[in-house]
Design a protein that fits this description.
The chain is elongated. With about 475 residues, the chain is mainly beta. The strands form six sheets. Strands 6, 8, 10, 13, 14 and 16 form a six-stranded antiparallel sheet that branches. The protein has three domains: about 130 residues, Toll/interleukin-1 receptor homology (TIR) domain (Rossmann fold, 3-Layer(aba) Sandwich), CATH 3.40.50; about 150 residues, no CATH class; about 130 residues, Immunoglobulin-like (Sandwich), CATH 2.60.40. The longest helix is centred in the N-terminal third of the chain and has 13 residues. The protein has seven helices and 29 strands.
Length: about 475
């Protein structure tokens, strides 16, 4: 269980230890940076009871997960009654159908309740997050307070909509709550709820969801007054993050006749590693209840000038007012870490390879340069470079290269010691091998050492290897 600084709002979770499913919900809420206090001490005692009472008294929200086990537990009932007596902001989540005692039923009659057994955990958490007081229990971060905007735009209730186009300005939306927070993110396949922040994991995919709705009253569509025109969505995200940094992923909805013309929101991604963030090709999809549902959107345009929206599969750029015409655009990003190894070896006979060997002046040696992409992203613009020591003379027409995708050695240009041998791209887990020959100059002195440093150059930087040759004159 966590302790918080004085005056930091937190959620007290009351549950029966037999309901282990609640621990998964707690874990997900904490991943969303919510301050959660819960009792994980199964032994109890008078001092522990005092500790429980103190944390109930100081909590911002009291959240009780009601089940048969909870109802049968004296401790759980004491926690709930104490929270009600202290007039805390009590929220009830029913984990199963059950009949409450008449006294408890009377006391809970006026308390907000969710029938959690009707939903999976993901949907249940989304509904919990719609409570306006929950946001106050979120941990502080270095996210700027103006992460959404414009800050001064007018907002509306669902039952009092404007007669002109305006986007994402309803504060009591049944699906996402405050529409000003309209960009969300989650790790793909995790089952986690969409949130405002994720920790980047190398190799993982993240789903970005941008919600949109023209909040104009639907009754203004017939006259054309409420129809938004030249509507588009665009996004941006950092291409590279250093260890310890946070980056902002921005979503914008733009319309030429909306007021304001542009609304925006951000989510944030942090990392403990140096990573690259790449858009997953063909992943942008429009989702709504109209005929344009499922349309694949141009990812390049989405990340640049924007893509047009429509409810129908025609009339792109026009969006009527009203909840019926709302939708989302989702796309995926991948967190990549470029990492590659380069290993150089030398041989006298082309069969037995060594990192270091002894040779004589005028000997012709075989060299092998092995490169493996051990990262999670494709390396592009790859070139191999070698034979930069003046005591070695490259022998023309001796360079051959092979790779995992092209396993047979093929002759390659004589460019290793010039501009570099162009290898193109190397995909993750692929190995590339380059073999070539060079002759030791006859002027090299006995007991001297020749070192050459072949290297691999990529769009992510360079990686060097080392070859050592000890000279022995017979």
């Amino acid at each position: 269980m966590d302790e918080f600084k004085e005056n930091e709002p937190y959620i007290f979770v009351s549950y029966s230890h037999k309901d282990e499913n609640v621990l998964d919900i707690i874990k997900r809420l904490k991943e969303l940076k919510l301050r959660i206090w819960y009792d994980d001490n199964i032994f109890g005692g008078s001092e522990w009871d005092d500790n429980i009472a103190e944390h109930i008294k100081n909590c911002h929200i009291f959240c009780a997960f009601i089940s048969h086990s909870y109802s049968d537990s004296r401790n759980c009932n004491d926690e709930l009654k104490y929270a009600l007596n202290k007039e805390k902001d009590v929220h009830i989540i029913y984990l199963e159908e059950l009949e409450l005692s008449e006294g408890l039923k009377m006391r809970l009659d006026r308390v907000q309740a969710l029938f959690g057994y009707k939903y999976d955990n993901t949907i249940l958490i989304e509904k919990l997050l719609q409570n306006k007081n929950v946001e106050e229990c979120r941990e502080a971060s270095n996210i700027k307070p103006d992460s959404w905007g414009p800050q001064d735009r007018k907002t509306f209730q669902r039952d009092n909509l404007p007669d002109y186009p305006v986007f994402n300005s309803v504060v009591d939306d049944e699906t996402i709550g405050d529409q000003r927070n309209f960009v969300r993110i989650r790790k793909n396949g995790s089952g986690n709820t969409f949130g405002d922040y994720v920790d980047a994991e190398v190799g993982a995919l993240y789903e970005v969801r941008i919600y949109y709705e023209n909040n104009a009253n639907a009754q203004t569509n017939e006259s054309g007054q409420g129809i938004a025109r030249n509507v588009c969505i665009r996004t941006s995200f950092p291409k590279y993050l250093k260890s310890g940094e946070q980056g902002a992923i921005c979503g914008e909805v733009v319309s030429s006749n909306a007021n304001p013309h542009k609304v925006y929101d951000h989510v944030f991604i942090g990392t403990r590693d140096n990573v690259y963030i790449n858009y997953v090709p063909n992943s942008a999809v429009l989702n709504n209840t109209g005929t344009s549902n499922g349309t694949k959107m141009n990812g390049e345009a989405l990340c640049d000038s924007g893509v047009s929206l429509s409810y129908y599969d025609t009339m792109w750029g026009m969006l009527p007012g009203g909840e019926k015409y709302k939708g989302t655009l989702t796309y995926y990003i991948k967190v990549d870490k470029p990492l590659f190894k380069v290993h150089a070896q030398v041989s006298t006979d082309g069969s037995n390879w060594y990192d270091e060997l002894t040779a004589c002046p005028r000997d012709v040696l075989n060299f092998r340069l092995t490169m493996v992409n051990i990262g999670t992203t494709e390396l592009n613009g790859v070139t191999a470079h070698a034979i930069h020591n003046k005591e070695l003379k490259y022998i023309n027409k001796t360079t051959y290269a092979r790779s995992t995708r092209h396993p047979q050695f093929s002759a390659s240009p004589d460019s290793l010691n010039k501009d570099g041998l162009r290898l193109g791209s190397i995909i993750p887990d692929e190995e590339v091998v380059v073999e070539y020959k060079a002759q030791i100059n006859d002027s090299v002195k006995e007991n001297s050492v020749i070192c050459d440093y072949p290297f691999l150059a990529t769009n992510f930087g360079e990686e060097y290897a080392r070859i050592k040759i000890n000279i022995n004159i017979k």
